[in-house]
């Protein structure tokens, strides 16, 4: 396969005003392969698009070559199974319609579990996927133990009106000194009945201004469904130390200061212990986005733990702690 690259922008960068050329480039032959994304957790699988962790649901597509500018299309003809360490099938999946623009189903590729299996910490699992005309793929992981959350609080900012619900969220994780562990942290809003009604969003200005090395070593709030705002950390070099999160945050959701309307009653902190492969995948996402398309940046390839294909078979052992507002 051959393509052409316009070199005008590069020539300008190098100070070669008025100079441009078209250079033919040989691209490697592309073999389509299955691409899967799925995260197994120790909680019930996501129930639908409005579930806090809907982004953990199974998605299947086929890879495209770098010269293909069409939107990536999922596929609804895949057979996917989850097996435990003994080889027993503990979960199977079926295609799911998903709302899109204009009220119609969006691109195929989304799946829901048939059995509602809940992952067991400490157990090893294998995800296998196959589809017509492509090689079958598989990936394995061991679901880690759930973390322990300690000393959580949310202090409203006295300079802000109470109905803005802006404040300081603080909590800590009791880390295991015997192992290297990896974490993600989230927070959502619940009403008085314990039903979800929004999320806690971190004020991201300071984080975005920080060096990449700082972003990947401090405990920040992630947002489910947003790859760039999925912020994993490792305890490497500080095993056994208490890991602290203290961030300016605000509550975002379906509520208002109008009298009689439903109001936030709890903040639920969710901390996920994740396997090393899951950590490395999301870490590579951060590095990829932070190159900002710079052709002179150090290459930032995405990690994959799927044998024979691409993607992520991720794991998350969640612990939760509620703070009454």
Automatic annotation (TrEMBL):
Domain of life: Bacteria
Full protein name: DUF4249 domain-containing protein
């Amino acid at each position: 396969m051959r393509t052409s690259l316009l070199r005008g922008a590069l020539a300008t960068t190098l100070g070669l005003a008025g100079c441009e050329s078209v250079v033919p480039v040989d691209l490697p032959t592309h073999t389509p392969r299955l691409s899967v994304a799925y995260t197994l957790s120790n909680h019930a699988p996501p129930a639908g698009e409005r579930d806090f962790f809907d982004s953990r649901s199974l998605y299947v597509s086929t890879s495209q070559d770098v010269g293909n500018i069409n939107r990536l299309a999922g596929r609804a003809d895949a057979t996917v199974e989850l097996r435990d360490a003994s080889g027993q099938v503990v979960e199977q999946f079926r295609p799911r319609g998903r709302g899109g623009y204009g009220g119609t189903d969006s691109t195929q590729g989304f799946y829901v579990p048939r059995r509602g299996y809940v992952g067991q910490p400490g157990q090893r699992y294998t995800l296998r996927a196959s589809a017509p005309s492509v090689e079958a793929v598989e990936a394995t992981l061991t679901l880690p133990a759930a973390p322990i959350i300690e000393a959580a609080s949310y202090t409203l900012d006295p300079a802000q009106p109470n109905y803005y619900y802006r404040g300081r969220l603080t909590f800590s994780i009791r880390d295991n000194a015997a192992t290297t562990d990896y974490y993600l942290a989230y927070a959502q809003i619940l009403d008085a009945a314990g039903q979800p009604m929004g999320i806690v969003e971190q004020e991201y200005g300071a984080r975005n201004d920080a060096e990449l090395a700082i972003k990947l070593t401090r405990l920040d709030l992630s947002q489910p469904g947003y790859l760039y705002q999925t912020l994993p950390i490792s305890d490497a070099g500080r095993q056994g130390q208490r890991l602290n999160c203290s961030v300016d945050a605000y509550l975002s959701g379906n509520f208002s200061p109008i009298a009689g309307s439903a109001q936030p009653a709890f903040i639920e902190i969710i901390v996920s212990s994740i396997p090393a492969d899951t950590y490395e995948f999301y870490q590579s996402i951060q590095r990829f986005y932070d190159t900002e398309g710079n052709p002179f940046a150090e290459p930032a390839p995405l990690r994959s733990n799927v044998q024979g294909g691409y993607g992520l078979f991720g794991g998350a052992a969640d612990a939760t702690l509620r703070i009454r507002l």
